[in-house]
Design brief:
The protein is mostly beta strands and 283 residues long. The chain has one domain (2-37, 99-271). The chain has 3 helices and 16 strands. It has helices at 2-11, 129-133, 266-271, and strands at 37-49, 56-68, 71-82, 94-110, 115-125, 136-151, 154-167, 171-174, 177-180, 182-196, 201-204, 207-214, 227-233, 236-242, 245-252, 274-282. β10 (182-196) and β11 (201-204) form a beta hairpin. The radius of gyration is 19 Å and the shape is globular. The N and C termini lie far apart (40 Å).
């Protein structure tokens, strides 16, 4: 599958004269790449999960420093805010993932074919109380982002993200049963990107496949010492009205296949997905 994804970069489209545009994914800051100094943004995403009648906001705050046009360091904290979930009695924010990241653009490029490779290492901290309760003490993600410009308004991106999970225990038990903790994961993104109005309107259409290896915990656990698979989509459109203010829409499906890779579950995966509005405010 990896070979097919890579072949697609070299056979799709005709190279254009413009530079390869910086890759983007959900929650990544949309800021000018030619500036240095303090960088940051806040995103508020009012959201609803398919099949549920309550709302919440998924929020992202990031602050960092851009050393030069190709190198920056930052910390990002994600958190939720309840709006009308009757199972929660407070509107107080609840922490989700938090991580330190570096973004190194153009570590390899082939200008003749408008190819560029970016690298983004991340170190996740145990800021999510639920993951912390399951034994998580940290994890690392290594984003390898290959992009090719195929026209003035179109690019094709391929990302690979190997992930190492750090847990103090092989698994945990809760009200839903026993579960094995992950030890290794690899994600692949095939992501067309469409741009209009000189990049002010940015549309990304990621197709994502993830394979996760779980620890040996108990033979009664479904994912015990086994691989689990997930296939999902996460389209997003953002209109940057000004360089520091944007509005958008996003959707993220649930798993479109069974965890053992034996069958597709399109109806279930799409009907239970999450729909969100996007309010983006940058420094």
């Amino acid at each position: 599958m990896r070979a097919l994804f890579l072949i697609a970069f070299f056979v799709l489209g005709t190279p254009a004269a413009a530079e390869t545009r910086s890759n983007k994914l959900t929650a990544q800051a949309k800021q000018p790449a030619d500036t240095s100094g303090l960088i940051g943004f806040l995103q508020v995403r009012p959201s609803q999960d398919g099949g549920k009648d309550f709302f919440y906001t998924f929020n992202i705050a990031e602050l960092g420093y851009r050393v030069n046009p190709n190198l920056s360091f930052s910390y990002q904290q994600q958190f939720f805010t309840n709006i009308n979930d009757p199972s929660k009695t407070s509107l107080a924010p609840s922490l989700y993932d938090g991580f330190v990241r570096a973004q190194a653009n153009g570590i390899w490029s082939v200008p003749k074919y408008y190819l560029r490779l970016d690298y983004e290492p991340r170190v996740y901290l145990p800021t999510d109380p639920e993951k912390q309760a399951h034994g998580m003490f940290g994890l690392t993600r290594q984003y390898l982002k290959l992009g090719r410009k195929l026209g003035e308004n179109f690019a094709m991106n391929f990302w690979e993200v190997p992930i190492l999970h750090g847990y103090t225990s092989n698994g945990y038990a809760d009200a839903t049963g026993s579960h094995a903790n992950p030890v290794f994961e690899n994600r692949f993104f095939l992501m067309p990107e469409i741009m209009f109005l000189k990049g002010k309107i940015d549309i990304t259409l990621p197709l994502i496949w993830g394979a996760t290896r779980y620890r040996a915990f108990s033979e009664e656990v479904e994912n015990d010492n086994a691989w689990g698979h997930k296939l999902w989509v996460n389209p997003e459109i953002v209109f940057m009205i000004t360089p520091n203010f944007g509005l958008g829409l996003a959707y993220e499906s649930q798993n479109l296949m069974s965890a053992d890779f034996s069958e597709f579950k399109f109806s279930e995966g799409f009907s239970t997905g999450t729909s969100s509005l996007i309010l983006h405010i940058g420094l």
